[in-house]
Write a structure and sequence with these properties.
Layout (H helix, E strand, L loop, with lengths): L5 E4 L2 E3 L5 E3 L8 E4 L13 H10 L3 E9 L2 E7 L5 E7 L5 E6 L5
Antiparallel strand pairs: 1-4, 2-3, 5-6, 6-7, 7-8
Length: about 110
């Protein structure tokens, strides 16, 4: 099915043995409803505040230096153990796809 298409539901069901059984009368017509169109997440729309909120929800604090690189946002933050880290957040999925420790300059 293509995105934004039409989803067709039949007025029938199958039992545990795989036999088809119909509900209602035998003249029941298929019912068409519009398929849901996926919405872009707020993060994917380029909102840095939404990316900050997503990182805070994952336990990071002191988030700074947000930079967009394609479909990722790169930031420096402090993790829940107090370690300063570089975080790469995928804006499409909201997943963390990269994490590395930031060492202090000498």
């Amino acid at each position: 099915m293509a995105l934004g298409g039409v989803l067709t539901l039949l007025d029938s069901d199958t039992d545990a043995l795989g036999k088809e059984r119909r509900s209602g009368n035998a003249d029941s017509a298929p019912v068409s409803i519009p398929a849901p169109v996926p919405q872009k997440s707020t993060i994917a729309q380029g909102n840095n505040e939404a990316a900050k909120r997503a990182l805070k929800a994952k336990g990071f604090r002191e988030i700074a230096g947000l930079v967009r690189r394609g479909e990722n946002v790169i930031a420096q933050a402090t993790d829940r153990f107090g370690m300063r880290v570089r975080v790469v957040l995928n804006v499409r999925t909201g997943d963390i796809v990269g994490l590395s420790e930031v060492f202090p300059k000498k």
